[in-house]
Amino acid sequence: MTQPLIPVILAGGKGERFWPLSRRQRPKQFLSLDGSGESLLQATANRLLPLAQNWDNLWVITAAPIADGVREQLPNLPNSNLLVEPEGKDTAPAVAWATLEIAKRYGNDAVIGFFPADHWIKNTDQFEHTLKAAAQLALTENAIVTLGIKPNYPATGYGYIEQGDMFGNFDSLPVYKVSRFTEKPNQETAESFIATGKFSWNSGMFIFRAGVVLDELAKHAPQILKPLEEKGQDAYADLEKTSIDYALMEKTQLTYVLPANFGWDDLGDWNSLERLVDSTGKNVELGNHVGLDTKGAIIYASDDQEVIATIGLEDVVIVRDKNVTLVVNKNRTQDIKKLLKLLQNNESFENLL
């Protein structure tokens, strides 16, 4: 691939289900969850740099309250490559605005890739190979290429992509036309999807030429594209909040899926540490833990001077950060968002958010 891929990192999310470690000024993408010291955002940038060829071709789009944090995390990122949304309106406006700005600089034939800032990738060589194949397809066809993740269990928390007819091989990897996108299924449906061998998880990563997507947005989502063309970020106040999947991917006829197998996790909540951290013991421990008859626990402490002591616990998450300790059953981690709403309703807890 002689032409660089122009990667755009989507770094505006909050990651509330990683509270109390994730806070307003320190969202999930700023955290190092594997003990490496490298944040998720930094890891994402570092694995995309070889494809971008240098920092001048790497872009980030983020939310105004955390823009300074992004600059701190990525000091080599040119300031002109950081797009700051005045308010979060989900992924459709973010993709549309970033694509418009990149087309202005590089032209409509620029090959762009969008990547969430909070994904974990195991095999970076295979990741690169997959992206080169996707970029090759995007360069030669009017194609919006999605990276589908080969499912290894019937997950109900992901959207799914159904493979249609095989389109061809690119860089020795098979590519299929997308038959349909499906929202998060129930357990029974997820099991039936996997049994067919024709479904991938929707990773939220996609690659295309700028002009192809601008044409498709003009056709399927003019209410998003036109205001951004006219006013740029000043259009945000009047834009609807909608995802790129809903605004474009489910409507366009130009979607292709490349089933990928490079080891992937979207790190949705504290339970994902069990998949991220190699643990041979009874518990996943990132911090000092002394336990008696405790098993199946995930324990995290941000201060290595502190000790978490437990007796007789099973299947819990315990997180200690600054002035907060969270204790939650592993089956209830999705409810952390509900807990945050309770804190938001009490002014005395403002400093905990």
Distance between the termini: 44 Å
**What structural category do the secondary elements indicate?**
alpha/beta
Number of strands: 17
Low-confidence stretches: none
Q: Give the count of helical stretches.
A: 10
Summarize the main sheet.
Answer: 5 strands, mixed, barrel
How large, in whole angstroms, is the Cα Rg?
A: 21 Å
What string gives the helices and strands in order?
EHEHEHEEHEEEHEHHHEEHEEEEEEH
Mean pLDDT: 92
The portion of residues assigned to helices is 25-40%
- Tell me what portion of residues adopts beta-strand conformation: 25-35%
Oligomer: single chain
Question: If strands are numbered along the chain, what order do they take across the biggest sheet?
Answer: 6-9-7-8-10
Query: What gross morphology would you assign?
Result: globular
What does this entry look like structurally?
- The chain is α/β, with parallel strands linked by helices.
- 29% of the residues lie in helices and 27% in strands.
- The chain is built from 10 helices and 17 strands.
- It has helices at residues 40-52, 67-73, 91-106, 124-140, 187-196, 210-220, 222-231, 244-249, 273-276, 336-344; strands at 6-10, 59-63, 82-85, 111-116, 120-121, 144-149, 160-170, 173-182, 199-209, 255-260, 264-265, 284-286, 288-292, 298-301, 307-311, 316-321, 324-329.
- The protein has a 5-stranded mixed barrel.
- Strand 7 and strand 8 form a beta hairpin.
- The mean pLDDT is 92.
